[in-house]
Amino acid sequence: MTRSGEAGTDYPEERAIVDVLVSGRDGGLLSWVEKLEDRDLMMTVGEDRSKRRVRVDDGAQLELIWRGPSELRSMPALLVGTEGGTDKCWRVRPTGPAARGQRRSAVRAPLTLPLGISAGKTRLTGVTVDISEGGFRGLLDPPADGDETPPAEAGPQVGEVLDVVVELDPGQVAAKVEVIRRHPREDHRPELSARFIGLPERIQDQIRARVFAGLRDLRQRGLL
Questions:
Q1: Equal CATH topology for 17-100 and 114-220
Q2: Which of 23, 58, 80, 165 has a Cα-to-Cα distance from 137 of 20 to 30 A?
Q3: Domain 17-100 -> CATH class
Q4: How far, in Å, are 122, 124, 192, 194 from residue 129 at the CA level?
């Protein structure tokens, strides 16, 4: 069977980042399209959020989600098998037409983006450590000289709702977030994880597009 349709819209392009949902498994896996064949997609073995390759049985039903020219796209597929030596690849065969994708998992990218946080009258700056449409992990600048707050208590606390601005380059996102975790550091700089609250779909798409672009760039530079 010869492939038909438009690359990017009807099927993911070569070197595209794909979010793989496996039937019966919670959470998405991250994969890359290495090569297009007449019937099949040759894709890297899916990785979980810890960047560990995940074994999936041959014959598993998959849903592939990728970023199309103007929207998320998705397509049902079958894992035909795992091939290759050290650098194993999945052979994936589409089983139905592509349609508009539904967001079911958030792909995260290790991107360093300028970050501004407002907590009451306090204004803090920093950078993201990673980001997805669901939230981010951020590292804030050290407290100002003369701040007598104990280091362990400096910065926003778990449960606080904050106003943030993230510079996506291009564009920016202004949103509310809830602090869900603090990460202790030896240098006492505040580091936290936060989730976005009530993001409109267009803003989620804007963040996801930046995440996918960042992942493509990191892969081209050999950093993923």
A1: yes
A2: 23
A3: mainly beta
A4: 21, 16, 10, 11
Domain map (residue ranges) of the chain: 17-100, 114-220
pTM score, whole prediction = 0.63
May I ask the CATH class of domain 114-220? Answer: mainly beta
